[in-house]
Each structure stands twice: as structure tokens, then as C-alpha cells.
Amino acid sequence: MVISATLSVVAVSVAATLVIASGTDSTGGGTPGSQDRETPNVAFLAGALADQEVVWEACEFNDDGPPIPGADVSNVECATIEVPRDWTDPDPELTWDVRISHARNIEPTDPNYSTTIMAHPGGPYSSGLSFSTAVQLYTPELRPTTNYVSFDQRGLGQSSRAECEYEYDPAGGPSAAARAIGEACSNHPDVATMTTEQAAYDMDFIRHLLGLKTVTYVGYSYGTWLGTWYGSLFFDNIERMILDSSTDSTRESIQHNYDAAHDARDRQFRLHMMNWIARNDATVGLGTDPEEIWERYFAATKSPATSLAAQYAWNVVNGPAAFSGPVLYPAAGSLVASIINQAEAADEAADPVELATRIVNGTELPDALRVIADERLAQLSAPPPTEPGETIRATHDYVIEFTACTDGQWTQGLEFWDEFHEKTAETAPLSAQFGLLITPTCAFWPTDSKMPPLDDSFPESIVLQSELDSMTPYEQGWAAGTGLPNTSLIVVDNESIHGVFPYGTEEVDQPVVDFLLGEDRPAHTIVAPGKPLPLEHTTYESWTPLDENGEHSGAPQFTDPTIPAETATLKDTAVGSR
Length: 578
Fold this sequence. Notes:
Number of helices: 17
Shape: globular
Strand content: 5-15%
């Protein structure tokens, strides 16, 4: 999960039972309320690795995680450190490499030094090495007194990787691949170390090797789950945390977030995107009634061929990215119109790939995205890599699955998932059309791993959440922001972006900056107004108005798209639109 398009694989898989060995610091004790818990001593656990020299050099960033436009890389160096392969049973001879970046602005010995921010972009499915430069760009007020660190989580980018081999017979049904991955990989010793808990230990080891007593943490999406794990383990070593677009890390398993994302995606489609399309009839041309447009869309794509063509079209133009960033709503609106028009004109014998091609050709796309879409359409037309009836053999290296399945126990077996998907298909038809209602690999991967205790030793934190986020649903962020100890909540009304900060408005950004500069977190929940959507100058109510606690009064299927939002007017009108 993160600042990115879709987790098109809601089938998630991974490894192993983890209960980290507790090497404790002989100089420290548990803080009040920590129930005599002590933060693990990573230097003790790492043994000789704790004395390694960190050799800094010029960074080379991967294509799957380049610096964002505008980021300054002039003060950034990178290094590769060795970490114990398994913090549960550390052996100096069995190690992984972890690649880290350090945007250095001030020496920690300088009297003006404030903190070092350790940042995580989420996922975990791509390189996070350059993310230090992104958060540095996001926080110019902090930069003179702050350094920034990020890293490629083990299993990604330039850090060490693990994979497992599996095979299955496609005749075994739609869950055959997930079952094969779970059964083949769940006991793989290397895959068993590719977990959130191991990553949390790596993070504190980075702190140790940098010679820092404490750090500040900023994490997005999955980085909020990782951050909660990190904060609950290493509370003495963390000054404060920002958890942006949050999972509900008060839960025992991250499964709850994945399950809830289906309905959240459809909720955004139905309440937010349909309302925008209806208000922009002059541009999109589908009428002014969001319910009629929604019904027309699913009527046009009800046959297997038209539904599959729609799925292909969404994927090849990266349409699901619009559910993470509404700046893409104009392209998504054009796609919806093209799907409706082409599907209504198609006959029952239409070839899904040919129909998808017509849909894409009728969608207004930027030139660069058009090239990518054409390449993906060509791949759809390519012959399958295996013959029918042939056993499929492959390797699996998806860290996003390796972590998720040990982020608490998922419900095991097919019975629950068959029933869950049947029910969810009724409430989340778009998610069903996207092909996301599939049995996760985690359904075949038992684990004893669970989040450490959450108590009042937890670091001072702020959770940020947009109301119509589809990847970390609103209920998840609200639960984290109101349920985690020592935590305040900032919600953005009538907003669907995934990854809120920096938002560009005073109501959202200033409390975060003030907190990172050392001030207290907000004393109460902040409900901030969302910015107008593309092509608009007014923010409209999409769901129901949030009260002062960030709670809704109802769950409507559709709303009047013409009602202006009740939230207070944006103070900074210069950045009040997209």
C-alpha cells in the first residue's frame, strides 16, 4: 500500500513465525506505562555488526523509485550496511545488505541540530532509497536543522532479496497459485526474514549506526503499520511520528485493511468520482445524475466480455491511480465515458481485447500514457506463456506479500474467502470488475506473528487521513488516529488523495510542521476542508458532513453532487485548487 496506484494484487503472501529475541539495554528501563518493557538493544543483538564502518558514496537511484521532481539530491549520500539476516536468531555470518540514503544538512553535534527524520513511502513494493529527498522537499521549514534518512526495505531495490520457487496446476482452480505460493514459501528460511518486524529492527539499527540517540519517523500507507510496529518496539528511541494515510494498526492483523479497501474503492467511485463526472457533464458528457451514470456504467459492463474489456482498459491506462490522486479524475472521467459508449455499442460476441483497444482509443490520454497503454494492449494480445494443462513453475519475490502475511494472522482456508468475495461483489462491483476479489496467498500461510503491545509508552504521533481514501479507508485512519496512544488525528473532508502531507493548506500542513519542529500535537481532532477537484473552484460535499470528531452521520449510496461542502472555507486560496 502507498502513495501509488493500486495494489492490484490483493492476494497477499508471506512468511514465518516471528517473536524477536529481546536483547535489552542494560542502561535503560521501561518508560511509565510500558509494563516494564524495555526497548530491544540492537547493538547487543547485532554483535560485531554493531561496530561496522558506514562507508558513504554517491547514490544511484533505481527506476522504480527515482527522486520526485524538484527534490534536491546535492546533499545526499548512500551506503550499504549489513544487518542480521534474522533478528530472532542473529548470526554475524548470516547477514542481509540494506541500502540507505542520508540527506545531510547539519551535524548532530551542532547546537542547532533538531532531529533526523527516518522516512518510509509505503508499499512495500518499490525502492524507498530516494524518499529521504522527498520528505526533505516536503519540509523546507525543518531542513536547516534536520537530516533525513530513508532505505530500501530488505527484499527491495538495492537491498538483499529473497525468493521462493513454487509450481501449480492451473486446473486446480483460481486459488491454485495462491495455495502453491503459500505452501511452498511459508517455510522458506530466507523469505521468513522478509517481514515488517525485521524491518523495524533494521530501522533502529540504522539509527544506531548513525550514532543517533533518537529519530523522528514519517511513514505513509503501509509505512504507518511499520511505524506502529517500530514505535511499539523502540519507543525510547523515537521522538515523534507522523503516520499519513493510515492502516488501522490497533487491529491484530493487517488483513482488515485489505478487506476494507474493496468497499472503500467503490465508495470513492460512487460518491466522489461519479459526483465529479455529473458536475462536469459539459466535459465528460454523461449527464448530471451520478446514480444514473453509475447504473449505466454497470449495465453496459454486465456481460463477461464487456466487464473484462473494462478491466483491461482501466489497467492499461493506469486508471486505478485516480483512486489515489484525484488530479487524474479528468482522464478517469474520459475513460468511464469511453467504457460506457463502447460497451453499449458492442455485441455479445465482442472480443475483450479488441473492445478494450477501442475503449482506450476513445479515451483522452497524455501522449506518454498513450504509449504505455499501447504497449500494454499489445501484451494482452500476446499468446499465453504456457500451454493449457501445463504445470506452471515460477519464483515468488513479492515483499508486499511477504510482509502482509506476517502482519498478524489472516483467516485461513477457502471457505471464508469464497463467502467474503461473494458478499463483497455485491457492495463493491468495481473492485470485483477489477479482478481484485481473489483468494489471497495469506489464506494458506499461518503465522504466530503479531504487533507488540500498544500502551502509553507509544511515541507522540499525528495521523493524517483523507475522507475518501480508497487504499487505507477512512475508518482505518480514524481508528488509528483515535485509538493509538498519545496520538492526534487530522482528517481532510471531501478529499480522496492517498498520501496527504504536504497538502498545501494551512489547516493541514501547519500543525504537522509545528509538531515536527517540537511543538505539542493538536489537542483535539482537526477536520480540515478539502481542496476543489480538477476543473472546479468549489469543494462539494461527497459523503455526509464530518462532525468535530471526524465522524459521519450516515452512509448514503448516492448524494446530491451540487451541495457545497460545509467544512470551513480554505484559508489559503492561492493553493485552494488543483
